[in-house]
Each structure stands twice: as C-alpha cells, then as structure tokens.
Write a structure and sequence with these properties.
Layout: E1 5-6, E2 8-11, H1 27-39, E3 44-48, H2 54-66, E4 71-77, H3 80-89, E5 96-103, H4 106-113, H5 117-132, E6 138-143, H6 150-163, E7 167-172, H7 179-192, E8 200-205, H8 212-221, E9 226-229, H9 243-252, E10 259-260, H10 268-279, H11 300-308, E11 328-330, H12 336-345, H13 353-369, E12 373-374, H14 375-384, E13 394-402, E14 410-417, E15 420-427, H15 431-443, E16 448-456, E17 465-473, E18 476-484, H16 487-504
Parallel strand pairs: 1-10, 2-3, 2-9, 3-4, 4-5, 5-6, 6-7, 7-8, 8-9
Antiparallel strand pairs: 11-12, 13-14, 14-15, 16-17, 17-18
The structure holds 3-methyl-2-oxobutanoic acid and zinc ion.
Amino acid sequence: MSHQDKLIIFDTTLRDGEQSPGASMTREEKLRIAKALEKMRVDVIEAGFPVASPGDFEAVRAVARAVRDSTVCGLARALEKDIDTAGEALKDANSGRIHTFIATSPIHMQQKLRMTPDQVVEQAVWAVKRARNFTDDVEFSAEDAGRSDIDFLCRVFEQAIKAGATTINVPDTVGYNLPDQFGTTLRTLLERIPNADQAVFSVHCHNDLGLASANSLAAVSNGARQVECTINGLGERAGNASLEEVVMAVRTRRDLFECDTNLDTTQIVNCSRLVASITGFPVQPNKAIVGANAFAHEAGIHQDGVLKSRETYEIMRAQDVGWTQNRMVLGKHSGRNAFRARLEELGMVFESEAELNEAFSRFKELADKKHEIFDDDLQALVNDAGFSAENEQIRLVSLKVCSETGETPHAQVVLSLDDKEQSGEASGGGPVDAAFKAIESIVGIDSVLELYSVNSLTSGTDAQGEVTVRLQKDGRIVNGQGADTDIVIASAKAYVNAFNKLLQEQNRPHPQGNAGGDGGSWMNP
Ligand code: KIV
Ligand code: ZN
C-alpha cells in the first residue's frame, strides 16, 4: 500500500475505563497514566467527565495542563452545565476536545431521556454549537448508536456535522453488534451522509459479547478513522475495545488495512502494567499482547519451531510491544541516577526531587530485603510510593502479627488517622484476618470485603506480594493495593489504601445515567 491513512487512537482508559466498578483513580494516578499514554503517542486522551465532581474536574484540568503532545478530551452530556464545565476544565490544554453525546436509540430516547427524536436532534445541534464556543475540536456521539435506526443516525449526524462537529462517534454502547453488521453500519453512514467527508468517523465498542475489538476493526475496514479504546480493555461492564489488540491487529495485518496508527507500540506493556497496578485489575495471563503468556511457548513442538525460526509460531515480536526480559536491573549498590534512569525507561517520571527521593529510599529498604530488584518490583514500589500521600487520611504506622502452630493469630496495629496515632488489636482466623480486624477496630468504617487477592510480582520466596482488596460500601466499590515482601504487611497496606479511597470517593453521577442524577435536565436551556 503506497498511501496509508492515519488511524486516530482515542484512549478512554481515564474515562470509560474508570467507569469499571472499583477502578476510580486519583488525580495523581490519572496524571501518571496520561503521561504514559502521551509517551506512547496516543492521539487523544479522554481524561474524564468534568461535571461529575470537583475531583473529576480537577483531574481533567491537571491532565490538560500536563499533556502537551496529545489532544486532551473531556466528556459532556448535551447539557449546558456539562459543556461549560468541560470547556473550563480544558481551558489550558495545548489541544483540547469536548466530547458531547446524547442517546439516539428508541429505548434510550423513550425510556431514559423521555424525548422525541426531533427534540434529540435539536439538543444535539444545540450542544455541538455550544461546545464550539470553547474549542474547534468537537466530537459528537450518538449513545447506543448500535441499536439506533440507521435513517435517524444519518439525520442526527448530518445535523451535528453542520453544527460544527469535527468527529462523529458511533458507539456500540451495549456491545450488541456483530462485526459484519457493525462494518455495514459504518459503510452506510459514510455513503449516505452528504457531509460525511467533513468529519472523522469514530467507533466506540463495548465488549459484552467479547466482540469489541473485532467490531472496531470491522468498522476500520469500512472507513472509520478513529477508534476509542482502553488499555487492557478496561471499561464499563465487560469493558471497551482493548487498545493493544486494535493497534497491533492493524499494525500486524498492514496487508489488509488501509491505515495505521502513529503509536510507539514498545510502550504498550508498560502502560498495561501501570494501569493494572493503579486500578487493581490484573491482566489475565492469556490476554492477547499484554498477558504474561502472550509470547510464552509451552508445547515442545512450538518451542522447537520458535528456536528454529521465530515466525513459525509468532506473528509479532515481543519486543515490539515492550516485552523485555524481566531484567534484574538494580541492586543494593545502585545509585539514584541508575534508579531514575530505569524508571524513566519504564515510563515513570518524577514530578519533583522529593518524590524521587522518597521512592529511592523505599528502593533502598527493598534492596536490603531482596537482592535482585526486577522491573515489576520497581513498578510496584513506585505505585506504593504514596504519590497521593497528601490525600491519605489513614496511614499504616506499624503492624505486629503473632502466628504460631496451634495458637490463634493475633495482630497489633498502629495507624495514623488525620495525623493522630491510634492503636488497635484483634485475633483472627489467620494473620491477615487478624490484621484486617485490628485495622477495622480503628477505622470504624462498615464495608463489605468483596475481593482479596495476592499476586507474586516475581519468582522466588523473597518476591514481593502485591495485594488487591476490593471494598464495597453503600454501592460504592473501591480497590486498594499494597506491595511488600511480607504479604501480611502488603495486605494491611492494601486494606488501608482501600479505606482511603472510600473516604475520598465522592458520589459521582454516572455520565450515561438518567440525566446523571445531578439535577441536570435534558430539555433545551
Ligand atoms: O458507551 C458509550 O456510549 C459511551 C459514550 C459516552 C460515548 O461511553
Ligand atoms: Zn462507553
């Protein structure tokens, strides 16, 4: 192919990805992911839903200020308050986009919006025009396009483009479509909408039937030139199309696509690890591209083939997506510069010398306990380094656990609560149970433990254990993480981290709820 179009990669890990129950991120965590996405040369980063809460607004604003090379986008329902708040949050962006949407399927219009199709078109046009007051880069989405009438979609998209939308997004909001069908929808829209050439057509596919990436690729084959996706396929319910799958399918099958992305694919594994550890959503070992087994060959016949010629069983090179040997990179005698340099290679950049110093002293502590420090250890160490320390109301000061054959385990814990130390103790069925009960006796938040998982970061009995704890309180779900060579301490850190998130987490309206539950009205202002 002599000429290839550009396929725009729109990453929504920080917005739709954050809508996964328990995946909410702090401003600092969003900033770190946004920087990693920028480094990977993602074209558009959807940073959040600014009207949802002051925290969301601040996070979008911080990303807009920090990111220079990617476009930063904020989501807004087709409502005045949403659009104006998104415009304000994006004010300082080098390149800012407002993404406004309204539902177009019969079921959403009748049951959720209680609006007629004419009202929906009018509201869409009004919203796009309002957004254009803030930026020339306006995306319009027809929510639940995958179950909308094609004639109505043509009508609403034509009007949105006339009103100034520069990107038209076709979401399969509930993951209902099949690849052939979705590809045909895209082709039909591009053929029938008279001003289709004045906008980029985009798709946003959910994975309810496991078809999000396949549907996105079918749309690309039929003319879509933007794909909305997330790292590790994170997202509402079963998730969104996974960035790594879409990008690598298009790159690997260049022979079949008339477009390619601008991504530095060698950053994919780093981004995947970062998102997994920040959200506490681990990557399944057999996940395409980023799973631990994605390039592992177990069967002897495969190993033999790969040794003779890699292409016998591999269609991509592991290093092209960022797999490195999980190298023993640093040790006890490594200096600050080597530490900083390796972290930068892994996509982790320190905002200040103070952050570097804090992470470096944790590194030294770890190196005393563990001779070989691997990339995964560094990643966990930085995640654990308390970048969001200023927001933490509870800190683990010390933990002592007695566990002995034939005896009931007992834990004594000291926590700092709003800078005042308090101690508690409890017995439990095991050391972790005792530690958790001791923490609960101080914190006093009544929540339900929904998940407790321990994952060994590297091999060897001196490996760090990474613990994820999922808590639920009044319908709100948070994930806490902690890592340590002592898994009881890692567990206590994770439990405290989850409580901190519960304390921070605000009751945010859902962008796709009925007017979001924040009193917003769908009627024309
Ligand atoms: O799934 C969806 O329809 C969305 C829109 C807001 C684009 O996330
Ligand atoms: Zn979505």
